[in-house]
């Protein structure tokens, strides 16, 4: 019996263009100034050191790190230190009302319905847990953080690795077969399925589907019948 959902964010409950055309350019615009200004703060310096490790350049200068971070933003790399820094940078944008966290109306309604019916909701995104909290705190529908019982990011591993879903399941009070993972990316769904989770593929933009995963165009098409 299904008891919980784990949802991806970008492309599943949030428009891809909100992330690519609003959040990423905002981070690209502010990252150099943010890193230069805050590099001595522990939470930032920790990510700078982690970036040097990912670059395999322990002696990289601050300018080298900034150039690499900008390249990682341009090429949408899901590298943990970048994702952690982006969350810190977006905080100012949300608080300054430069943007609100986009949610598809059908996704908001679906999340509310499932929550009302007693299903437990979790989030797993490449965006950091801080970035997830911000998106839901400053969402188009107000502060909806109370809908979710837990948040996971790339600190559990990358979204295309089955071990990441195993790591998440070790932290949840459910068996994998009681959980549905929602995503727009087939490689992520394959990894979740390999870890024993049920899956649902969101094909909002007409992506290729796979017979391995139940697929829907949006959440108005979702049915639990599929998982009985
Ligand atoms: C938490 S909002 C920012 C999303 C983000 O940075 C990202 O890389 C999207 O990844 P997802 O796993 O949600 O597709
Ligand atoms: Mg996605």
Largest sheet: 6 strands, parallel
Q: Roughly how many Å apart are the termini?
A: 7 Å
Query: In CATH, what is the homologous superfamily of the largest domain?
Result: HAD superfamily/HAD-like
Strand order of the largest sheet: 3-2-1-4-5-6
- Range of helix content: 40-55%
Summarize the entry for a quick read:
The chain is of the alpha/beta class and 228 residues long. It is 46% helix and 11% strand. It is globular, with a radius of gyration of 18 Å.
Structural commentary:
The protein contains eight helices and six strands; from the N terminus they run E-H-H-H-H-H-E-H-E-H-E-H-E-E. It is α/β, with parallel strands linked by helices and 228 residues long. It folds into two domains: 4-16 and 101-227, 3-Layer(aba) Sandwich (Rossmann fold); 18-95, Transcription Termination Factor Rho, Rna-binding Domain, Chain A, Domain 1. The protein has a six-stranded parallel beta sheet with strand order 3-2-1-4-5-6, sandwiched between helices. The longest helix has 23 residues, at 16-38. The structure holds ligand L4RZE5RM and magnesium ion. Magnesium ion binds at residues 8, 10-12, 183-185.
Helix/strand layout:
Elements: E1 4-7, H1 16-38, H2 42-55, H3 62-74, H4 80-95, H5 105-116, E2 120-124, H6 129-137, E3 150-152, H7 162-171, E4 179-183, H8 186-194, E5 198-202, E6 214-216
Parallel strand pairs: 1-2, 1-4, 2-3, 4-5, 5-6
Helix pairs in contact: 1-3, 1-4, 2-3, 2-4, 4-6, 7-8
The ligand CSCCC(=O)C(=O)COP(=O)(O)O binds next to helix 1, helix 4 and helix 6.
């Amino acid at each position: 019996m299904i008891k919980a959902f784990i949802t991806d964010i970008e492309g599943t409950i949030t428009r891809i263009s909100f992330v690519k055309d609003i959040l990423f350019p905002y981070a690209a615009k502010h990252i150099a100034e943010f890193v230069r200004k805050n590099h001595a703060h522990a939470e930032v310096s920790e990510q700078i050191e982690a970036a040097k490790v990912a670059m395999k350049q322990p002696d990289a200068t601050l300018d080298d790190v900034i150039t690499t971070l900008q390249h990682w933003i341009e090429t949408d790399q899901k590298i943990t230190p970048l994702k952690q820094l982006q969350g810190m940078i977006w905080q100012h944008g949300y608080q300054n009302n430069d943007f609100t966290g986009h949610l598809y109306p059908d996704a908001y309604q679906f999340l509310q319905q499932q929550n009302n019916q007693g299903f437990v909701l979790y989030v797993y995104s490449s965006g950091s847990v801080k970035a997830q909290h911000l998106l839901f705190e400053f969402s188009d529908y107000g502060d909806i953080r109370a809908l979710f019982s837990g948040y996971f990011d790339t600190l559990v591993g990358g979204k295309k690795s089955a071990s990441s879903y195993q790591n998440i399941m070790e932290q949840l009070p459910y068996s994998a077969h009681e959980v549905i993972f929602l995503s727009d990316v087939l490689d992520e769904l394959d990894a979740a399925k390999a870890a024993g989770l049920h899956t649902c593929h969101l094909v909002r933009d007409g992506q290729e589907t796979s017979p391995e995963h139940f697929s829907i165009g949006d959440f108005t098409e979702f049915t639990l019948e599929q998982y009985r």
